[in-house]
Each structure stands twice: as C-alpha cells, then as structure tokens.
Write a structure and sequence with these properties.
The protein has 396 residues and is α/β, with parallel strands linked by helices. The chain has 18 helices and 11 strands. Helix 3 (48-58) packs across helix 4 (68-78) and helix 16 (329-345) runs antiparallel to helix 17 (353-364). It binds NADP nicotinamide-adenine-dinucleotide phosphate (NAP).
Length: 396
Amino acid sequence: MKSDAERRDIKHIAVLGSTGSIGQNALEVIASHPDRYRAVALAAGRNINLLAEQVQRFQPRAVAVHDGAVAQELMDRLSKTRDTEWLQGPDGVARMAALDGVDTVISAITGAAGLEPTLAAVRAGKDVALANKETLVMAGDLVMQEAAERGVRILPIDSEHSAVLQSLQGHDRDDLRRIILTASGGPFRGSSLQDMSRVTPEAALNHPNWDMGPKVTVDSATLMNKGLEVIEARWLFDLPISRISVLIHPQSIIHSMVEYRDGSIIAQLGVPHMITPIAYALSYPRHLGTPLPPLDFEAIGSLTFEPPDLERFPCLGLALRAANEGAGMPAVLNAANEIAVNAFLEGNLPFLSIPRLVERVMDEHTPCESVSLEEVLKTDAWARRTALDLLDSGMV
Ligand SMILES: NC(=O)c1ccc[n+]([C@@H]2O[C@H](COP(=O)([O-])OP(=O)(O)OC[C@H]3O[C@@H](n4cnc5c(N)ncnc54)[C@H](OP(=O)(O)O)[C@@H]3O)[C@@H](O)[C@H]2O)c1
C-alpha cells in the first residue's frame, strides 16, 4: 500500500495528440510505469475509434477533441459511463493543456496547431515534453522566454534533441563547441534528381528507420525535418545556428552528438524507437526501464556518415536561411511547408516542387517582428494564403 506522500509523487500527464504516433508511444510509456505516471487528460483530432479506446483504457479526467462533430459522437458513445470533462475545438484543446492538476503536458499534435495549446501549457506553469517542433520553429523566442519567466521546463521528445540533452549532462556549458544533429537521409538519400521527380506519396511515406505520422515522414524525406530541428535546437539549447551542424548517418543509431572544445565528442546511441526519448523526457534526468531490446552492435556492423546534399534536398538550405533571417521567416517556412506537404500527399504537387513552393512564399515575405502570439499567427495565416494562391494559380 502506498503512502500519501508516494501517491503525490505520481506525475499527472496530459497528452496532446494522443491518437498519433508519438501520442500512442507516450501512452505506452505512461502505462508501463503506473507507479509514476497517470494520463489524466487526452486531446486528439478526428480518430474517434482510437480515442474512444484510449478513454476507456486510461479513464482520463478530461478529453479535448478538435473536431466538434467527433466530440459530440464520442460523448454520445461514452458519457453515460464516464465522469469526464469534455472540451471541444482549438480553445478546448488549449484549455485542457492548462487544466489544474496536470503536471506535465506532452505536446504531440502535428503542425502549427500545436503552438497555442503548448503555449497555454507554458503559461499555466506546466512542464512540457515537446514533440511538436513547430512550436519552437514558429515562436521559439516567445515560448522559451515565457517558459524561463515561469520556471517551466521544456524537455525534448525529438530523438536528436533528447540525445543532445543527454550528451550535455555533467558538462560545463562554457566548454561546448557545437552540436551535431544526425539525420538518416530518408528514403531518397541515394536517389538521383530524376528519380526524385517521380516520387509518389507512398514512396515518401516509406521511411527506412522510423515509423512516424505522415507530415513528419514527408519532412524527413525532403530533409525539411532536419531544418526544422536545427531551428528547434537553436531555441532549446540557446545556440547560434553557426554552432549547429547536420550530419547524415543512415543507420539512425547515433541520435546526435555534442562536441566540446578539447575535441571530445559525446554521443547518445540507441535502438531507433521513440519510446526512449519519450521516456527520458518524462523521467529526466533519470533513465527508467523500457520494453525495447538492447542495441546489438554486432548485428549493426558499421556506422557511416556523409554530408547532407543541399542540391538534392534544398528544404534544409531553406530552413537554414529562415533561421538566419529570423523576422518571421521561420513561421513562413513552416506554414508554406505544411501547405506544400499536404498538396503533395493529396497528389496535387510533385515532390520536387515542395521546396519551390516554400521558397516562393519565403521570397514574398516582408520581414516582421514576430514576437507576440498574435503576430506569429498573422504571419502563419499570410504564408498559408500565399502558398494556396500560388498553388491555385499553378505558379509552382
Ligand atoms: N512520430 C515521430 O516519430 C516523431 C518524432 C519526432 C518528432 N515528432 C513530432 O511530433 C509531432 C506529432 O507527430 P506524429 O508523428 O505523432 O503525428 P501524427 O501521427 O500525425 O499524430 C498527430 C496527432 O495530432 C492530432 N491532431 C492533429 N491536429 C490536431 C488538432 N488541430 N487538435 C488536436 N489534435 C490534433 C492527431 O489527432 P487525430 O489522429 O485523432 O486526428 C494525432 O493525435 C509532430 O510535430 C512531429 O514533428 C514526431
């Protein structure tokens, strides 16, 4: 029997994006440590069947659903048996992130929709386990500043940033020379531009090492994902872009590295599975058990490295340009990329036109001071409209 003090140690967790790839893995981590974690609030978009199962299994105090019709159907299915607070729409998701009694919010909604609820969590003083990199790409300055003011911890779920965080432990920050983010290179690492011009959504969604949601999988295939991660790292670790390098490492065993001024490099290695960084974000700075098999070096054989090819993967260069220019450009990059990826997945834009569309929108952006949430959302909306207009007019 647990004492009251032990019971109070249980971390109460809200999972934003519970039906997604990260959300489902996060719930498995939570379920595997019932003495430490409890999922008290769940938010999702449209996947009613999976959300209904999760509500039955985890019995959360609150459920937020982005889509009002889905929320109503779910309430009709479950409300007679459940004493749950139901929230709806974007406001409902943001309110759920700020609920009393929640200690940590796992931010795992995909895309720009993750920004407002994540900021709501920070403003309510919740620690954030962050998968939604778009939050920091769009509004890194604002979010990190507000987190610092409230003593809120933002702990990365992205495996690369988790690796950097782990490689920083026990070292003096003054000794840090640079961080090296590794990238698998995606399914088209060895493809010619000619082959890439014929890439289908099915081929782009077939990632060699990671099983992820569709948006981040396409971003991995274009290397936009690595560019977004560079911007995320810039804010998480408070480093200039010039001290963040990208290295292609096809086996995805070294998840990222930190180089110190004496030339020492500290890396974090592991089986490529998101369970590990999710578990670390929740247990930081401890490492708790997971069901994953140990890394088998003999089976892996060799680890290889190569530089990224910015000619075949211009999205990475565009992200670096956006990071260096600032002034709203990262939010423009992110919004235009979301529209482009969506159009590609719907069969309305060739794979190689994703960077062309993003660049066209970036070229039309007038630099602005995107320091408030309102400004960021205005910039995001402008970039989406511009990208859609360019698509409609067939100009890319
Ligand atoms: N998957 C990975 O391995 C991985 C690794 C590192 C970082 N990340 C980052 O983690 C985030 C999530 O990625 P993912 O792969 O888990 O994506 P995913 O599988 O597509 O899941 C997205 C989740 O967000 C929910 N959602 C979407 N729009 C919403 C809205 N407006 N309001 C509420 N919920 C909404 C979806 O709900 P429904 O499905 O119910 O509609 C789903 O639960 C992304 O930012 C990604 O870059 C992912």
